[in-house]
Write a structure and sequence with these properties.
The chain is α+β, with helices and mostly antiparallel strands. It is built from nine helices and 20 strands. α3 packs parallel to α5 and α4 crosses α5. The protein is elongated and about 75 Å long.
Length: about 375
């Protein structure tokens, strides 16, 4: 199939080639300011060819601004954008080999399903037999091959989303941008369409760049994730890397639930702020300030590292969530699938107020080195 978005650009007007061929997208020194407010701070990012990449973060972190700069809908204040090795920084959206699926889908209510999918080709003067053939192939890809003649006003939310994806993929763009396309759907339908999107992406091999604030959605879809915070990339990695080895307290707390123990390292012992001490991996940095332990890594056992009091216990079906309090006010959370966390206790025997012992694999305690905030004494001097 011919990529109409590229076909529109005469060879003589193509920008110079730059970057690495294996990267579908390269952002270099991207900065975006709105007056005195900085939305993105000198952002550098490589997205691989054929990758399902997620931009993840809370509202206002810069993820949608990044997506819009890639698509050409927003101009960067500084920096360069390359797609498939071609500098597209100064090209408008319709001259970039990119298509976008927005949360609203933006389908034309007066056109049928297949006419919506074929609309871009119609504007590009593709002969009717060819555009209908390609539109039908795109509908078959998203599982709506029998919906060709249906009015889009008769579609469910999930069906409309798939029509929008078919329309975006029909010209085989180098990159497909998806701006929270599942946000308006109910939870059950979102989970089903997440699976379908993942399958479609593998079938077509197009690079997908997916924006979401939903960490579970990103973890379930992405080959790699970039977590943004305040207009900066906090960490890039696979879902497992980000979950198991967060680079900062922000990532550890944003992705899933974390137990974070503050203290200091001395040799192979980590001294907690409450006076207790626990083992730490020998290769942890000497200036380690925190240990991150995921709830499912904690075990209730007879002889553990820490004693704790049971504060609450909630049966959640597949898991049981138990909140523990250490000496002082610090709390830890244990999450167990079946009985795996309870080595020496019957789950039904755990009572509120009971003292238990906690243990974990030393490798499961991920060390963090954090920049400690300076405290000021009453005389105004920093400590």
């Amino acid at each position: 199939m011919t990529n109409l978005l590229v076909e529109d650009s005469p060879a003589s007007s193509q920008p110079t080639v730059s970057g690495t061929a294996k990267n579908a997208i390269e952002l270099r020194g991207i900065r975006k300011s709105y007056g005195d407010e900085v939305a993105l701070h000198e952002l550098d990012l490589d997205i691989l060819d054929g990758e399902f990449f997620c931009l993840l973060g809370p509202s206002g972190c810069g993820k949608t601004t990044t997506l819009n700069i890639i698509g050409g809908f927003v101009g960067a204040t500084a920096g360069a954008v390359s797609v498939a090795g071609v500098n597209v920084t100064k090209l408008p959206p319709n001259r970039r080999p990119i298509n976008t699926v927005f949360q609203s889908y933006a389908l034309f209510p007066h056109l049928s399903v297949i006419e919506n999918v074929a609309f871009g080709m119609r504007m590009a003067k593709v002969p009717k037999p060819e555009r209908l053939k390609r539109a039908q192939e795109a509908l078959d890809l998203v599982g709506l091959g029998t919906f060709s003649d249906r009015a889009v006003t008769k579609l469910s939310g999930g069906q409309a989303q798939r029509v929008a994806v078919a329309r975006a993929l029909v010209n085989k763009p180098k990159v497909l941008l998806l701006d929270e396309p599942l946000g308006a759907l109910d939870l059950k339908l979102r989970k089903r369409l997440q699976t379908e999107l993942s399958i479609i992406q593998r079938q077509v091999g197009t690079t997908f760049v997916f924006v979401t604030h939903d960490q579970e959605e990103a973890m379930g879809l992405a080959d790699r994730i970039a977590i943004l915070n305040g207009g900066r990339i906090e960490q890039i990695g696979t879902p497992e890397e980000i979950y198991r080895r967060p680079c900062s307290r922000y990532v550890a707390e944003f992705i899933g639930e974390s137990n974070i123990l503050g203290g200091r390292k001395q040799g192979e012992v980590f001294h907690l702020e409450n006076g207790a001490h626990v083992p730490i991996t020998a290769n942890a940095p000497e200036d380690t300030t925190s240990l991150v332990i995921r709830p499912e890594s904690l075990r209730i056992t007879a002889n553990g590292f820490l004693d704790a009091e049971i504060v609450s216990r909630a049966y959640l079906g597949a898991t049981t969530r138990i909140v523990m309090r250490l000496s002082g006010s610090e709390q830890l959370v244990v999450s167990s699938l079946s009985d795996h966390a309870l080595e020496d206790h019957d789950r039904t025997g755990l009572e509120i107020g009971q003292m238990v012992s906690l243990a974990w694999s030393i490798k499961a305690a991920h060390p963090l080195v954090e920049q400690l905030e300076k405290k000021e004494d009453p005389n105004g001097k920093s400590e």
